[in-house]
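Handover notes (outgoing to incoming on-call)

Open items:
1. DIS3-like exonuclease 2: sequence verified, structure written out, both below. Nothing else pending on this one.
2. Nothing else urgent.
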Amino acid sequence: PQKDAYARLLSQHRSSKFNSYLEQFAGKGSKKQVFEPYMPVEEVSHGLKRGELIEGQLRINPKKYHEAFISCPDDGRDIFLDGIVARNRALNGDVVVVQILPRDQWKVVYIVEKKHSRAVTGFLKFLPDKNFAMFSPTDHRVPRINVLLSDCPHDFSFRPDDYANTLFICRIVDWPADSNFAQLLAKSLGQAGEIEPETEGILIEYEVDFSDFTTEVLNCLPKNLPWTIPPEEMQRRRDLKECIFTIDPATARDLDDALSCKLLPDNYEVGVHIADVTYFVEEGNALDLMASQRATSVYLVQKVIPMLPRLLCEELCSLNPLTDRLTFSVIWKLTPEGKILSEWFGRSVIRSCIKLTYDHAQSMIEAPEKLFTAEELPPFDPEHPIDEIHQAVLRLHSIAKNLRTQRFTGGALRLDQLKLSFTLDKETMMPQGCYIYQYRDSNLVEEFMLLANIATAHHIYRHFPELALLRCHPPPKAKLVQQLQEVCDTLGINLDFSSAGALHKTLITTLGNDQYSAARKEVLTHMCSRPMQMAQYFCSGQKTDEQQYKHYALNVPLYTHFTSPIRRYADVIVHRLLAASLCGPKLGLLTKEVQKQAMHCNDKKTAAKRVHELSTELFFGVFECGPLESEAMVMGVLDQAFDVLVLRYGVQKRIYPKRKVGKTTELTLVWKPENPNEAPVQQVISIFTRVDVQLVSDRAALKYSAELQRPNTDES
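DIS3-like exonuclease 2 structure tokens:
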């Protein structure tokens, strides 16, 4: 695989190669100090304790790459770093230490952790009479880099035009303080504008391991196939012969979870059954180490980069129908309103009686009296007839509605943003169409997954108060909330930011139900998402204040991830904690180890989210082969531009008009008259202004921009 070849190329690199860089670019004599050397670790430690230095994560402005910022620990004003020299070789996302000097002299003195992969895609430009080429990254937050011609393709100097549309990836492997030029390695990915080279560039840039699983890893898998559950393992588990089924998207192949709902005389017995991945992934072996490094499956538009080998995630662990599978179950006795009367955790064996899609479940919910035929549904277990399955779905739907109502009455917040999805050609995997994903009643699964995650969090924290892997969600950043509150006050919108529940309630009740109000609600939802912080995994032993355990959006004191161990390594750790709490194997985990893995899972989850977003943008760029027209709504006004939410496709774009008169909260655009006898047309742009835009392809491969369309004279 190309990734392996690239890794070998990295490992073969030697310092002598870099010496040639310095000789050719800087000369053999004394070298000018371009960057300041980093402080010694001891000085950094003392400076942080004395408050002379501040640690934070570097954010580089993608539109103005000379500007960079670091958040203050007290949530006050950001620290501003002006220019590349002040950043001292740090890249976007790195955790750095800043020295507090007079404002115009703030600078980075140490890099605590290089979060940025140091890999970036871009294009090579030939420079006549130079012994190096210019590498221009597609991410403008990374400075342009000079690449020795000896590192370029062998015929690049003679035929540079042949490479004008070739996408390269460069990885910075060193960047000394006395050099303008980073030590790097370059590799060609293929033609820019093609899905696979662009996708590979994204994966490498965000350090997603997409190489084949090694022989050592594959040797950890069961050898005797087809695999069956050993009799001794069956005896150790609760054999659940209930009506149990899965509800997933039609394309899902890694089925983590199943549900059951049995009618009792006065109540219900509801079960959540999760694939027992830890039975197959032994702690500390090569498979476990690989899974811990990957930490998550990564979902692209056209494929999945799995955390585990496909034999596990699509077969032996996946809760496929009509097959005995090993699970961890949590089973409750619930009232019809969703109140928990009793709770049981344990290892179990299930046999899913049918694989339902969301569409199947939705059909059942919408037609409660209908008698479905076998032809309308996937294959099912005759021991559990269709009507039994149908009634179980209806009962789960009824309970889920009550659970959802209780959650939001109890102060939870949900900010559903428009989500773009694609239909793909099954052979070419190219986009045939796109649509906005609709949240429907068949998403009832979510309520029971939340209930299981909350129950598991309390269980493992009760048994392991120093070792529990939990998931917190900090409250939104106070400074950004204050700014948003001021904007809302100016617009006459009464949003209550005092708590998650108050925000949710006022978002629903403040606006009407007409089409314009619906669009305003989408814009407001995006605006309210900006101050929100990311949820984080952490080890309970690392936080002394239990208030820091809280999940802001869910408004619960304890939360974790238990329900997706096939695709999330955090859930694997939680399963091991749960097993140990049930008189299972003795844990070999330490608080520091759990915290280190938690931080790694956070980084990988953030990267996976960004990769999915870039994959979506990539496919939309492919799909957008001709101008696409849509209504849009303004969601922010700047000095020289304004941001819009394109309502038909759920994408955000920035528009740079040519003729404008700017104010603090609005822009007045001046349109030339269409005929000489008419006066110029003025168009006022402010938040919530409805405009017409056209999405058009840029010259850059698979990129698109939004162009503002001339307003109708009647509307202006």
